[in-house]
Amino acid sequence: MKIGIMDSGIGGLTVLKECLAQIPEHEYLYYADSKNAPYGTKSSEEVYELTEAAVNFLLAEGADVVVLACNTATSAAARGLRQHCAAPIIGMEPAIKPALHAAKEKRVLVTATHLTLASKKFKELVAEMGVDHQIDCCPLTELVGYAEAGNFSDATIVPYLEEKLARFRLGDYASIVLGCTHFPLFYNQFRKVLPEEVQIFDGSHGTVNRVKAFITENSPTPSVKLFLSGEHLEQGELFDRIQSLLNK
What pLDDT was estimated at residue 141? Predict the structure, then answer.
């Protein structure tokens, strides 16, 4: 099976890495739209058009399923693309559920791009869980630009995170959600800024689980033709014996 993965740039490589670790036996096609990164500063209409173009490219290359390894692209385009694409579309979702489960009664901080946090999809997700009183949001769109420029230095990233997170009492939080596939690339810098007890979550594991479920549901059923020579057994008895052996 050919699995297409798209992102606004290199962030989706975090999802590809997880796919290769868990389901390495398939063929992968990766599309990085680095020319148009970051998506998080664009309008929803622009992101939809760019995502559609990337998906169409992957479908033309033979993808059987396409993963939108970009929270912003998922928020802006997944619902619309599913209405007319021939292949299934699997999107990203911020890992709010596992973060909340780990947090229990403490707070959860969700980081993402401006567009993801402002999207109807994100607001619906939080509303459905009825936990808006327990969640705070922090846009960190600039991290996408740093990643695409190859700037992962502590000297740049740590002060940036400290400045952006300064308005939050980090000791009040049990979990932080990295709601953009670029953000896990800065895991070490997040770890230096956050209190030790704060757990870090990202959505790649959940997305890969949905890819695995799709593969399982759509794997071709084995087809076996049986040919019998001679008449020493009734056909029904022979088939029963073969089925019994196959099931062992």
Answer: 94
DSSP 8-state secondary structure symbol assigned to residue 113: -
Give the Cα separation of 245 and 248 in Å (integer): 5
The residues, any chain, with a CB within 8 Å of residue 195's CB and separated by 6 or more, are: 170, 171
Catalytic annotation present for 137: no
Verify whether residue 70 is a known catalytic residue: yes
Q: Which of 70, 85, 137, 138 is catalytic?
A: 70
pTM: 0.84
Would the pLDDT of 218 be above 90? no
Coil, strand or helix at 234: coil
Beta bridge partners of 77: none
Residue 237 pLDDT exceeds 80: no
Residue 47 has pLDDT above 80, yes or no: yes
Which residues does 237 contact at the CB level (< 8 Å), separation at least 6?
none
Structure tokens at 213: 């479920």
Neighbours of 246 (CB within 10 A): 9
